[in-house]
TrEMBL record:
Pfam families xref list: Gp49
InterPro entries assigned to the protein according to its UniProt record, in alphabetical order: HigB-like
Name of the protein described by the UniProt record: Toxin RelE
Provenance organism: Acetobacter orleanensis
Source taxon at top rank: Bacteria
Length: 112
C-alpha cells in the first residue's frame, strides 16, 4: 500500500473509493481482468492530468480484497516488472493463506 500512498492526493482518494466499492461487492467504474498476473486478478484504472494509475488486486480469496501492487503507468502496455511483482505477491499471498488455513484451530479451554 505504500505505492498507493505515493499517488497524488486526488488519485489516492479515487483509488480508495474504487477499492471500497470492491470491498462492498460492487464493481469499480474502470477495471479490467489481469489474468496474466494470475487467476482472479483485476486492475483498477484511475487517470488524472499527470498520468494513468493502476491498482492490481484480487478479491476472490475469501471475503477480503488483497491489493497486490499499485503503480503509475507510463506506456500503453503494462511493464513486465509490474506484472512480475504482482504475480510474486499473489503467489506469496496464496502460500500464506494455505498455511494459515492448514493450522489446526485450538479449542478454548472451559473455565471452571
Amino acid at each position: 500500500m505504500s505505492d498507493l500512498r505515493e499517488f497524488p492526493p486526488e488519485v489516492m482518494r479515487e483509488m480508495g473509493y474504487e477499492l471500497a466499492l470492491v470491498q462492498e461487492g460492487d464493481t469499480p467504474s474502470d477495471w479490467k481482468p489481469m489474468a496474466i498476473v494470475g487467476p482472479g486478478v483485476k486492475e483498477i484504472r484511475v487517470s488524472d492530468e499527470d498520468g494513468i494509475y493502476r491498482s492490481l488486486y484480487v478479491a476472490s480469496l475469501g471475503s477480503k480484497v488483497y491489493v497486490l501492487h499499485c503503480f503509475q503507468k507510463k506506456s500503453q502496455t503494462t511493464p513486465r516488472k509490474d506484472i512480475d511483482l504482482a504475480s510474486k505477491r499473489l503467489s506469496a499471498l496464496c502460500r500464506e493463506l494455505r498455511a494459515s488455513s492448514a493450522k489446526p484451530k485450538q479449542k478454548k479451554e472451559k473455565q471452571k
